[in-house]
Batch of 3 targets.
Target 1
Amino acid sequence: MKKSLFILSLMLVVAVAAVAATFSEIKEQALLGDREAMYQLSKCYMEGNGVAADYDRSDYWLERAAREGQPDAKRVLDLMGGKTELSSSKRAQLAAEEKRERERLLAERQRGNNGGSTVTPPATGGNLTFTVNGVSLTMVAVPGGTFTMGATSEQGSDAFDGEKPAHSVTLRSFYIGQTEVTQELWQAVLGNNPSYKKGAKLPVERVSWDDCQEFIRKLNQMTGKNFRLPTEAEWEYAARGGNRSRGYKYSGSNNIGDVAWYGDKIGSSTHEVATKRANELGLYDMSGNVWEWCSDWYGSYSSSAQTNPTGPSSGSLRVFRGGGWGDFAGFCRVSGRNRRSPGDRGNGVGLRLAL
């Protein structure tokens, strides 16, 4: 056994066999960016639990987990002198493999073919409602289509450089939450409420991207579905109204006061969801109220046309969208982008689910 893997084996206080999740479940969560799952996947490959032992892949996922800030992985890597024995060429090969597998996983989820545990979005209509511990969640069907993402003409001089160049994106059908995740839903799933301003129908806030992954993991266990964060492209397409878009600057109107709670109007806090006008798809608060985490790493746009993009394969900052209660109107535009470390929390940042 390689020296690095020998050191790693000494650190495995909890055996992989004791982990409730199967290898395939662990790998799915790792591909979707969960740093704990990345560390567990490294252990699976090292010990041959649920998969043939593969030391290169073990090293790769250990590095990924450490780069995402998983504390045990960072500790192990430090004991190895800050690096594994993985060659640069093999690292590049495995990074490309990770990207392909993640894109395939997201495509399968959008088609509803992931083990039969999701529902295929219909071409039109067909919203879904779920109940979790007495709390209802409505998912709106978003028929697929092609749109121009980024600094389109109606954004005018308000568009920032990060929104450029505008580019064509084609998406499959999917579902997205009719509202932001409320505090009562978060409480029903995780049994706690981290929000600064409390209220059952208020959007949950002070949740990091990492916190959202834990919420989604538990929600999926409870429902047997595959809820997730929307990709940045899915979020913008839905905010623009999908194939019903009327080309508005904000989500549902050119007059921000019709559709958004934002800094110019409220001054100090979140408001209950769905109390402003919905957009063309029947979605509420995609402009204003709280920023909403997306699944993607933040990266620069390309002018090339894209199909079902998922953002860069790695990074240090995650995307969040939509503007919040304390922001000026310019931050609440449908093309506006922002980013933070996945561990950051703030009382203006929440989430909206996709399926």
Target 2
Amino acid sequence: MSAAHLSRLEEITDLSMILQGESNDFTEWLAKDENIRTLTDLLSEAAGLNFSAEKIQSKAENFSVIITASEAETDRKVIIMTDFDSTDDSGLGKLITSAAINNADLIIWIVRQADDEHRAAIEWLNSRKFGNTEFLLCKIKLFRIGNSEPAVKFEVISRSKTKKYDATDNVEKLRFEYWNAFQAYAFDGGNNPKFAASYRRWQTSSNYGVVFGTGKPGFSIIIAKTKDDIEAGLNIADDKKSFEYLLSRKNDIEAECGFNFEWLELTGRKGSRISTKKSPAKLDDKSSWPDQFEWIMTSILKIREVFGKYIREAENGK
């Protein structure tokens, strides 16, 4: 058997070659609903959050787009501003104005290049603690393998350091330690090679929810850690038809996953959720953490594999 041919992953440093032009600029790409879902899925994974876009609020010149979104578990209002250029004072002003007009709780600024002074400005805004408002500065990157289609990735380059955990809050501190220990167990310990090969590390925080991709825009896996249990679920951003099909295959899905799921259509909201719990799974019982980590990794892989199969069936039947 001949050795496999391995290609090299290369970063596309000149983004204008891909994202500018009459048919391929970033604003036109974002004008399509499926691409907005891709954007929010990638951002969710990069930032360790869970939100879905609601609409493009406005489109301005210089490749600037503003998107409103909401965070699934908390209903925090999110503003995402894409600015296909280097940061400047005008863009920062527009960001703050949009946040104020929309009364946003989480403000994400996606740029091609971040200047030091504007990165410092985002850090200063976070340090002022305007209630629970948080600012994230993200850089857009493109990669390709050989002559493949370009793939997009977002890198969080500035966020609130105070959001990691409050040292006076034991639950916040424990949850930060928990996710640190999980990443060491999952990626350093060799305990589940399939999981380690499928996912990558993220910036540890004290968030109770962590988002994992499925490879399918609009579908993400959420792991939520409370004091007493763990919830693993599939979040469907805006696709009621797929939810209905999955529900029709409920018995098959639960048998293949080995879980009983709670099926939440979330009437009146765009999204839907399908989840299961491990209980008890005490946050303060560190001796049980390895067992909890095993459950998390196994659950993520089962949900991705089994639901992925039925999601493809749903698409083929549309």
Target 3
Amino acid sequence: MKRWWNLATLLSRPRPRVGSTPAREIHRENKWRLLRYEPAAAPRERPRTPVLLVPSLINRHYVLDLMPGKSFAEWLVAQGHDTYIVDWGTPDDEDRYLGFDDIVDGYVGRAIRRAAAAAGTERVHVLGYCLGGTLVAIHAAVRPEHVASLTLLAAPIGFHDEGLLSRWTRTRSLDVAALVAATGNVPWQLMQSAFQLLRPTMNLSKAVHLVDKAWDDEFLDGFLAIESWGHDNVSFPGACYERYIQALYRDDALLAGTLSLSGQPVRLERIDCPLLAVTFEHDHIVPPASAAVVLERVGSPDKVHLHLSGGHVGAVVSKKAASSLWPALSRFWLERDALGTSTPAQPPSQRAPAPKRAAAPKRAAAPKRP
């Protein structure tokens, strides 16, 4: 009975609060801003190095702060991590001229430096999710000075894969220059339609699952929160999109070693900080091989691959993530802090010696099911 009542009243059901973990703005520039999450109580001794979360450029940041109980940011704050996040905001018409270098070198760089300055450290642990991971990997390859470690969460690095998104984007019928000339900023509706075509039966599958689980209030709240986020998308600045598609999807320039950032060559082998690459078995947006290839290219001797079940979004925000993925990420940062991969900001004469490198790469086993 409860199932049918919940379905009948679904449209009038109060929507769950999304992006509700308390945070304050510490930097704003153009449309984007940097947020620092507030500790819920007087924090115990904090981990040494702050954590900066960089979401995809075309999605709202609150996927990492979805709702109480299903918020990675909320969980990090509860563990004592000094946590920051980039909110990309909403581009306007004038942002059609915003370039790839403006965002990846300028905005990402300033977010990293502002977070480090606010925390009183020289470096920060940087986590990039999806396209956000691609951006921070490119930045770290050219500007590594303030990156204590790099966590790439379902982040595409190799773009010539067998996934449908890669194949579509490389077809000659997609005239990127004409699209940008006609639209300015590439409309989010167009991009969302492309993602939905990756799994044409996804909406039907969700409807069936909804009917099956409608009796569960907790499931319904989580379902509505994800749907709210999934339909709250961001258009892509035109100039940045044009170079992103040509250089990465079509030229595979990041792996080919032909990409540049503000005139500087992007070489993945220059990344020598600790690296954690997270892939998901059923990720239909970023195939695991596309994300895992970074482990073969970076120069760091300390690199870990965590491969989990689940999909591109569900594995990050599910209840299971709180007992598997999230603790694994926190452990990675805490272990590197203990090894001395990051140090508080000090005058040059007082700086600690460079940390010793691990002897060999290692692969983390997937956590056991709770």
